[in-house]
Amino acid sequence: MSTVARPQSAQAAKARPSQDALRKKKKQGERLVTLTCYDYTTARILDELGLDMLLVGDSLAMTVLGYSDTLSVTVDEMLHHTKAVVRGARQTMVVADMPFMSYQVDHVEAVKNAGRFIQEGGAHGVKLEGATERVINIIQHVVEIGIPVIGHLGFTPQSIHTLGGFRVQGKTLDTARRLFSDAIKLQNAGVSALVLEMVPVEVAALISRKLDIPTIGIGAGNGCDGQILVIDDILGRYGELSPRFVRTYMPSRDLVTHAITEYAEDIRTGRFPDNDAEAFRFPESALGELQAVFEEFA
Ligand code: KIV
Description:
The chain has helices at 19-27, 40-47, 60-63, 75-88, 107-119, 133-144, 160-163, 173-189, 201-210, 231-234, 252-268, 287-296; strands at 32-36, 53-56, 94-97, 125-127, 149-154, 193-197, 215-218, 226-229. It is α/β, with parallel strands linked by helices. The model is unreliable at 1-5 (pLDDT under 50). Strand 1 (32-36), helix 2 (40-47) and strand 2 (53-56) form a beta-alpha-beta unit. It has twelve helices and eight strands. It has an eight-stranded parallel β-barrel, surrounded by six helices. The structure holds 3-methyl-2-oxobutanoic acid (KIV). 3-methyl-2-oxobutanoic acid binds at residues 36, 55, 57-59, 97, 195, 218, 228, 230.
């Protein structure tokens, strides 16, 4: 019997759309709606909305854990969040990002770590960044043992020091050619879908047209087969970066500031809690006796 901790929710094992469903939607011309997600409560909400995939992105290093980039987050930290999302997402596919140094060393370590995301985390696939010969080889090994993999090209945050910061990739003919070639290599290696991050619209659209697998754009324009954004960005919660490609749908920081200011004011002025509506009363018929009990201690 396995001693590995399983996800807590019984519903986690329910059948849900597979990675093939993504390809099918591309064929039918349906755009994929995907989003990052890092916790149970948010996963419960998103799970009702018919999204095609939730990504437990290593962006949580920045948005949830407060690191300055994605490089510091560990497999254990990613697993902790993956399990929470899987408990909440009862019908939506959950993909976990493999963090920096969890797959780059060799394929044995990569396969073991990918396996942990499936076996312990309950994820339905993993995402890896890049398309170097080493990464392609590693992806082939992970796919070969039956773990769906999503690729990630363009701006790959785990290579931020090589790329020299948050920079658009594929802006020249040479770098665009390289992106085309890498995208095809990833498809041939067996990835189920490909995230294209911060790639010019025209390049991303041509790659999307060329590939059979769906592309999922973030800062890559409208010609991709689907889109992804970081949930904290669209909810206006993470204020430390404001990339051009983010559309904010909700001013969470303002709403939270307003709500907590009111909460503090209600406590300070004695308006919270309301003893009748927000607390528990002692039986009125025994209040006299309660007073007597209290006086025994006086
Ligand atoms: O970590 C992440 O959130 C990602 C998405 C931005 C694609 O990789």
